[in-house]
C-alpha cells in the first residue's frame, strides 16, 4: 500500500488558525520537538505523518486521529527520505520541498520507493480522465476524484493508488502490484 500527502504552501489560511505551539502540542511527540524549530519544519513533519497514516489506512490499518501515534524514526533532509512507525509497523518514504508545495509519499516496503510514480496537477479535482494516471487505457475510464478504492486494475496490470488534494494542487501516486 502507499500513501501520499500534499500541502499547498500558498493556500490562504494554511496553518494560521492556531499558534505554532498549539500545532506542536497536537502533532509532535517529545522526541520530534527537537527537529521542529519553525513552521516550515512542522509543515514537513505533518505532511510526512499524513502520508504514513494514509499508507497505514490503505493497508487495512484502523483509522484514528492522533498524529502523536505516528512516529518519525529518521529523516534525511539531503536525500529527502524518512522512516516512520505506527504501532510497530515501519513505513519508508520520500518527500520533496518545492516553492509552493510539500509532497510526501510513504509505503511499508523500502524497495517499493523506486517503483512509485508521482503525478502532480494544478487543479481543483476537475480531472476526469484516467489517462492522467494510467495512459490511454480506454476501459479504465473512471473519475479519479470520486473513487474510494486504493487498488485499481488496468488491463492485465494492477496498481495501488493514493491521492491527496490541498489548495490548488492535486497529487496522486501509483505503485504496481507485485
Largest sheet: 5 strands, antiparallel
Low-confidence stretches: 125-132, 135-148
For the biggest β-sheet, the strand order reads: 1-5-4-3-2
Under CATH, the homologous superfamily reads: 4'-phosphopantetheinyl transferase domain
CATH architecture verdict: Alpha-Beta Complex
* H and E order: EHHEEEEEHEEE
Q: How many structurally independent domains?
A: 1
CATH class: Alpha Beta
Continuous helix count: 3
CATH fold call: Ribosomal Protein L22, Chain A
Structural class: alpha+beta
Shape: globular
Radius of gyration: 16 Å
- Strand residue content: 35-45%
Give helix % range: 10-25%
Ends distance:
11 Å
The mean pLDDT is 76
Number of strands: 9
Keyphrases for this structure?
3 helices; alpha+beta; four-stranded antiparallel β-sheet; 178 residues; Ribosomal Protein L22, Chain A; 35% strand; 9 strands; five-stranded antiparallel β-sheet
Notes on the protein architecture:
With 178 residues, the chain is an alpha+beta fold. It has a single domain, classed as 4'-phosphopantetheinyl transferase domain (Ribosomal Protein L22, Chain A, Alpha-Beta Complex), CATH 3.90.470.20. The chain has three helices and nine strands, in the order βααβββββαβββ. The protein has helices at residues 20-27, 39-58, 131-134, and strands at residues 3-8, 70-76, 81-86, 89-97, 101-107, 117-122, 151-154, 157-166, 169-176. The strands form two sheets. Strands 1-5-4-3-2 form a five-stranded antiparallel β-sheet, covered by helices on one side. It has a four-stranded antiparallel β-sheet with strand order 6-9-8-7. The protein starts with a strand and ends with a strand.
Amino acid at each position: 500500500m502507499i500513501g501520499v500527502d500534499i500541502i499547498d504552501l500558498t493556500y490562504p489560511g494554511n496553518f494560521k488558525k492556531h499558534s505554532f505551539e498549539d500545532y506542536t502540542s497536537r502533532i509532535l511527540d517529545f522526541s520530534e520537538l527537537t527537529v521542529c524549530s519553525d513552521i516550515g519544519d512542522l509543515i514537513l513533519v505533518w505532511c510526512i505523518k499524513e502520508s504514513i497514516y494514509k499508507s497505514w489506512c490503505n493497508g487495512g490499518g484502523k483509522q484514528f486521529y492522533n498524529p502523536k501515534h505516528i512516529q518519525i524514526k529518521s529523516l534525511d533532509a539531503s536525500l529527502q527520505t524518512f522512516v516512520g512507525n505506527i504501532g510497530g509497523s515501519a513505513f519508508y518514504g520520500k518527500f520533496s520541498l518545492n516553492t509552493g508545495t510539500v509532497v510526501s509519499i510513504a509505503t511499508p516496503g523500502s524497495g517499493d520507493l523506486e517503483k512509485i510514480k508521482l503525478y502532480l496537477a494544478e487543479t481543483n479535482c476537475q480531472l476526469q480522465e484516467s489517462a492522467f494516471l494510467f495512459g490511454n487505457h480506454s476501459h479504465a475510464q473512471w473519475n479519479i476524484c470520486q473513487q474510494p478504492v486504493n487498488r485499481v486494475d488496468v488491463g492485465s496490470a494492477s496498481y495501488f493508488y493514493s491521492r491527496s488534494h490541498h489548495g490548488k494542487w492535486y497529487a496522486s501516486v501509483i505503485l504496481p502490484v507485485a
